[in-house]
Amino acid sequence: MPDPIFSPAGPAAQAEPIRMRTLVLLRWFAIAGQMAAVVVAYWMGIGFAMTPVLALIAAAIAMNLWEGLMPPRRTSARLAVVHLSFDVVQISALMALTGGLVNPFALLVLAPVTVAATSLDSRQTVALGTATMVLISLASLFGLPLHDSQGRELVLSPILALGHWTALMIGVVFFAGYAHRVTGELQATSNALFATQVALAREQRLQHLGGVVAAAAHEMGTPLATIKLIAAELADELDDRPDLQADAIALRDSAVRCGEILRSMGRAGKDDLHLRSAPLRAVLEDAAEPHAGRGPAVEIRAEGPEILRDPAIIHALRNLIQNAVDFAASRVIIESQLGNGWLAVTIRDDGPGYPPALLARIGDPYLTSKRGGAQREGYEGMGLGLFIAKTLLERSGARLGFDNGGPGAVVTVRWPLDRILADARAPLGNNPNWLP
């Protein structure tokens, strides 16, 4: 089953859309602006319905004070919609009481729907945006006029009023759509980066565990050999005591079995962090090993220098190989090329390749439109694997290229030699102390 950490419908769907403290703070700013506008308009002698306007501002103050008296709580999407709807109604009513489209501050009615677009889903944003457009239209048609200090009514010409109304309608759609799109992309990128960190941390934990297992296998080998030797000698000397001889033989066989288990654990613990460098082919074999028996043949035709044996690089290459195996028809080929100052690794498959229209976006997080054709059984990708690989490899100094050719997909990873070559003569490092 897919990991809920990486699923956009997982924790993100249950997360607090916007904190109540943020809604209250934004409303205090709005109240301060409204009061300032009332004071300035009164000072300038602008005539408007003062008492209803102050009553609406008092309603907003009461809403904030009521929220301040409530115990702290998580904000649900429904509660956020209620508060933002209140703000839309309050600002629209103020707009209607202060001249409608004549009011130069009418643009502020776009604020609640913009906040909604950054924190709520598409359906709720569309509903609030539609309500905002309706309320703006009603405030435009039935708004009370403003009067200057001489008592003259302030009016807009019909063409300017229509233009102002059209601008507000476009503003609702543009600001809400733009804010929702940008917020969604930022959230997807944030989730994908979190997935990258989780994947790399998992790879490093596995390597730490492998180093400990290998060390344990090495240290316990000698005492087990001693136990085996003594048990064998006891078995030879206890011919006249069949019952004790059977126990000695069982002890010897158990010691042999323990030795076999430790040898296998030692092989599984080959990722000892003392091994900071390895030949290019060994690193590629390490990356390809989990996908060797998944169907398509994985052929490594790469020879190269000693390179850094970095868990981030291994994990990234493993993701690229997995993607190739997922879509390959029968074969995945891994090749290398060494140039003047650079090293390149190419991973190609004989699958359907990338859709040409998506080539420029390959490596973006949550790119759900995948290659054509049937995927390998167990495939659960949503574009995160390629994003993680691209992020980790770019951090190592590599540049990635995605293309189609002959006939499947081709991924090229190219490093500057000074970023990937390892000094095989450097002293071995210490394994990190993973014990508490």
TrEMBL record:
SMART domains noted in UniProt: HATPase_c
InterPro entries: 2C_sensor_his_kinase, HATPase_C_sf, HATPase_dom, His_kinase_dom, HisK_dim/P_dom, HisK_dim/P_sf, RegB, Sig_transdc_His_kin-like_C
Catalysed transformations (reactions): ATP + protein L-histidine = ADP + protein N-phospho-L-histidine
Entry's localization field: Cell membrane
Signal sequence interval, chain numbering: none
NCBIfam families associated with the record: ActS_PrrB_HisK (NF033792)
Protein name, as recorded: histidine kinase
